[in-house]
Every structure is written in structure tokens, then in C-alpha cells.
Amino acid sequence: MQETNSTGNRFQITPLSDRSVLVSFGNIIDASINEKVFSLHQLLLQNPFDGFIESVPAYASLAVFFDTLKIKKLTGITAFVFVKKFLIQLLYQAHSLKVTEYPVKKIPVCYDPEFAVDIIDVAQLHGLSIPEVISLHTSVIYRVYMIGFTPGFAYMGTLVQELITPRKEQPRLIVPAGSVGIAGAQTGIYPIESPGGWQIIGKTPLQLFNAKNTSPCLLAAGDRIQFFPIDKNNFANHGD
Amino acid sequence: MGIKIIKPGLFTTLQDLGRPGYRCDGIGPGGVMDFFAASVANFLTGNDEHAPVLEMHFPAAELLFEEDALVSITGADFGACIDDAETTLWKPLLIKKQQRLSFKKHNSGARVYLSVQGGIKADRWLNSYSTQIKVQEGGYKGRALLKGDGLDLLAGNSFFGLKNFPVVTALAMPVYKPASPIRCIGGTEWGIVEDESKAKFVGELFSITAQSDRMGYRLQAINLVLNEPVHLVSSPVDLGTIQLLPSGQLIILMADHQTTGGYPRVANVISADLPKLAQQH
To answer: ipTM score here?
Structure first.
């Protein structure tokens, strides 16, 4: 059942599991929809209900996790009914779901084919030179839409039209940590070594994930990112 | 001193009830596969329910106790023996210095839990002692145990003072039978599953294929048809989420699942049946 709040934002609230709900604003990669997701996420963090555990933003949906038994005990009604009501009220109160604009984080990337193992293919596919690919990739301020897939993996968008590239037919078994990739209209960085199917066009010396930090991930949903090129010789100097 | 690993067994790790609160960082809660057996194991040794326990599969580890310990063994029946003499599950046991705990026969279930009174020393990461394999943190150096590893015990002499021992009645002891029905709620995308496929899904006898582990159980494909082709953008998932993969196979997300996914979520196993599911193989 679709609901609409006062600003015309359409959303659906359904159970994700028996201890979580999903607030869905659609099924597309779109900055304005993602802004709604992130705003609700921030609103919840500022106004949690008793029994709230965490909320998880994604492209066009927000999952809300809670302690079912605690809520039932406190309110006398089922957790799903309580949480759904709470979220609807929150959405109606937020007359315009505004977003805090974070400063742009600059990320150094080495686009040398030694690290950028797919950059030659990507350039060829689009009839571009490698410097043109680099220019197009670094020209945009990207939004981090969500973190998922592995710890610290930031899904960022959106690539300029000329760089939109399908995933690799055969995903790699191992993609080195720090590899910068593109897939569809998205770009992202592999924070830890993992399998991966994105086209690798660069590598960053920055540690996207550091288990020793209390906040182990460098990036979070809502962040704004811009890449800048560094050459191979300076790679070591830019490490954090 | 403590426990020496004589045989590591198949994927033996230290786990607790997990680390909720970090899904935004792409870090799932993880933790024990069977929270019921693990919690009861700790209850029987007087530990806090959040104390780390050893989670083992079959073939399970062989452990040499280098000091006296009050333990409990719950979950799967793997023919637990202390110095080759059969011992009992679901109750507190005393293992004496130089005695060995081993598991001789796979009778039922899939995961066995060992709790030690006073606790087992473990690495803490993001508020939990659970082993996070992907980033190699928590538990025992962020990895599965190997032959020769040693676990330190934290009891000291504290168990000598214990007088009243908790019991688990027979009524509370689970019996693991194959093909036990696992209850689910409809998943986020259940609505676009064709009616005939819905009927097929409910009541189908699924096999947990060999490509199954703590991340998820892969089930065979049963030709589930969707009303419309779907291309989902990545969205959050939960423990127990049953996804429909492009190959037609179904996968039930288990303890070490990823936090998000782009495959249709057809159903979700209810929390109460997760321990039962964790013991299926």
C-alpha cells in the first residue's frame, strides 16, 4: 500500500524480516530519491524510538532494524505496527526532507594501466583516449549512495554518459584493495581485497577501510566525493 | 594453559551474539549461527549470554584441556567424548586437566557449541568477540582455528564456589530432524512471484547444497517464476532473507551475510526458526 506524505513523497513500508522494516521510495538510482532516504535515516538517528537498533540507507530504500520483543513489551502492540506508524509520522512531520550537504572529500587515484587494469579496454570501448577517460572520471562530484557488498564499499554515482560501461563478463576472483572501478553508471572503490566484476580504472593509496579505527570506514552514505589523478611515483606519498 | 587445539576440525571459530549497529559500514552482525544453542551453553556455565563460545562443524575439533574447566556442550550431537568416553550434551560438565574433548560421530544437527565457565579469551572488535572472516578481526585473530592454536581461559578458580547448577529439561532440548518445516514471512518481492510458484515454494523439500556456509545456504533451483522481469537496485537484506538468484537457485542468507543485495527477496525465515535452520545440513 503506497502512502504519500505532505510533500508528495511516495513511499511504502513493508516488513523486511520479522525484526525489520523496509521504507521504499522506488527502484532507481536517482539523487533526489536517495536524498529522501538519507534524510529519513538522519531524522531517525536524531529521533529514535525505544527499541530502535539501526537504520541502513540504500539507493532508494531504508531498512530499519529493531528489538521486536522490547517494543511489544513497551507498547502492547506488535513491533511492525508500531514502527510503521512511527515512521509514517516522522515522514509526515518532515515537511521537506532536507539534506545536510557535506564538504567534498578529495580522493587521489593513480590511473596508470599497471593498477588500472581495465582502463585501456574501457577507453577503447568508448573511443576515448586514456587522458579523456581520466578527465571524465575526475570531472564529477559524486554522491555516495550507500555502503554495502563488503565492509566499506561505497556505491557512488553518477558517471557521465560517455563513461557508462557494463560490468565485466567474467568477474575477477581477486580485486586488490584500493582498486577504483566503474559499472553501469556507478563508480566505487574496493576497500578490501575481494572478488569483483567492476571495470578497474585506477587505484587509490588511501585506506578506505581500517579495522583499527573506531569508525573503520572512510566513506559513508551522503558523502560527496571527487577523484583527482596522481602519478605512479607519488602513489606512496598520498597514503594515509 | 587453557585449551590446545589438537585437531582444528572444519571451520572452528569463536563467536558470540554478534555486532549489530554497523550495517551502515557494510559490516553485518555476524555471530553464532544458532543463537539458542549458544545462549543455553552460556546459561549452563553461568556465563553472560554474550560470552564468546566455540562454534564447530563436523568433523569437529579435538581439544586438549591444559587446566580443569567447567564446560557445556550444546547444539548438534556429534558424539561428544571426554577421553573417548561418551559425554552428555545440554548440561554442565567438568573436564579435568589433560583430558581431551573429541567428537566421534555425526548423529544429528550441524553446529555444536562449547561454552567454558568464566569465559574464553578472545579478540574484541566493534563491541563483539565474533570472528569477522572477511576483514580478519575478532574471535581468534580473525580466523578459524588451526592445529596447535591455544585458547586462554578466564575462569581462574571461580567455579569452585558454584553450588547450584542450572539444568535444561528434556522438553527444552531441541531434536534435530531433517526436513523440519521452517516458517517464513513473505519477502519484499513475494508479491511478484507467480501464484503457481508460490504454491511450489511452500512445501517443497529443499536440499542444502554443498556450496553452503556461514554466509548462506544455497538451495536447488525449483523454477520459481516472477510475474514480471525485475532489475533491482541494491537494497538492504537481513538474516534469513531468501533471495532468488539469476541461476534460479535460492539462497538463504545466514550469519555472515552481506548487508545489501540486488536479488529479489522472496521470503524471510522467522527469527524463532533460525536456530532450527542453523542445525539443518
So the answer is: 0.95
